[in-house]
Please model this.
Amino acid sequence: MKIKVLGCHGSEGQKYKATSFLINDSIVIDAGTIVSALPIKDLKKIKHIFITHAHLDHIKDLAFLVDNLFGKIKKPIKIYGKKKTINAIQKHLFNDVIWPDFSRLPSRSNPTMRFIPIKKIVKINGISIEPIAVNHTVESVGYIIKDGMATLAITGDTGPTRGFWRRLKREHHLKAIFAEVSFPSRKRLLAQDSLHYTPTTLARDLPTLENNPRICIYHLKPPYVSDIIREIHKISPKWYVLKLGKTIKI
Ligand SMILES: [Zn+2]
Ligand SMILES: [Zn+2]
Model:
């Protein structure tokens, strides 16, 4: 499995981009940063986008992606997410006020995008993608992504949560975990209220897992990036902080 980091922060800034991961060129997890990270020929290869939750830093580039591809693709891009998430995106973003409803454009029968509510595993060309509920201020999921050889787990935005980590104990080919850490530990009250991890709370929750999967940290909030990195070097030097533009193979 090949994963390109299009964006790995919990917001936007001069050197920071909201979260998106491109898997094997055609599947994207979260739509924080797509159009500014890829040339148009690569945008055209994107067929499936899985959204973790409806917050803006995870959906905003849906708007610009479909705008860029309007009239240029033969089949609609499929946008997957929990029903509440899909409803929120339709109601608050593609509502013909904030942005046109591209799920009806250029035509209802062959639009630019199509929304697909998901409950369980979705299988696409030998890759399975399973949503797992996590603990955030709006309905939110992480994803477990498998290609038969390797498994990748992405937490999505979450504060301390049990089910996700318990579920990972059943995975025998887990090679990497992309785990969110949004704030340094000194901002624990802010993390607690907004339901995000700090290095301390993540270290507390991370179970011991077979095969020692690589722990990759993302969704750092821009004002705290250097703080968080310094803290991680101290308390968990084996954790790797994801970098923009990097491709990871597992
Ligand atoms: Zn976020
Ligand atoms: Zn969020």
User: Anything to note?
Assistant: The longest helix spans residues 56-69. The pocket of zinc ion (ligand 2) is lined by residues 53, 55, 136, 157 (CB under 6 Å). The CA atoms of residues 6 and 37 lie 6 Å apart.
